[in-house]
Write a structure and sequence with these properties.
Layout lengths: L1 E6 L3 H13 L4 E7 L2 H11 L3 E5 L7 H10 L5 E6 L4 H9 L4 E4 L4 H15 L1
Parallel strand pairs: 1-2, 1-3, 3-4, 4-5
Helix pairs in contact: 2-3
Length: about 120
């Protein structure tokens, strides 16, 4: 089972992502969720999920800051950044920090399904 952690300050995003992942039928299990960057980082240190879906802009720490920690400490966690902003600079920063992918809100079912299939192939 591939472990997934979801972090977004909008509760409906975490709920929606969790449901879509569960409905995918793929071997993914959501092992935690948070609504701010500080809780996310603490949980990531302990849980060390295979995949982290995180909003770029959250209270406490940004998704980019959490991703920097993951990279610096060489966790194997693949990070997918989520944003409601279609700004090139966010996408550029995400790629420079080593993001696996970058999703724009609202996230389509097709887009998410394609992404989790790519994640599965890269992890297994």
């Amino acid at each position: 089972m591939i472990s997934v952690y979801i972090a977004d300050d909008e509760a409906w995003i975490t709920i929606g992502l969790k449901k879509l992942i569960q409905k995918s039928g793929l071997p993914f299990e959501v092992i935690g969720e948070a609504h701010n960057g500080v809780t996310t980082l603490e949980d990531i240190k302990t849980l060390k999920p295979d995949v982290l879906f995180t909003d770029i802009r959250m209270p406490g720490l940004s998704g980019l800051e959490v991703m920097s920690y993951i990279s610096e400490h060489q966790f194997a966690t693949k990070v997918v950044l989520i944003s409601g902003y279609a700004e090139f600079e966010y996408a550029r920063q995400a790629m420079l920090c080593g993001a696996f992918d970058y999703l724009l809100k609202p996230i389509s079912i097709k887009e998410l399904t394609n992404l989790i299939c790519k994640l599965k192939e890269s992890i297994v």
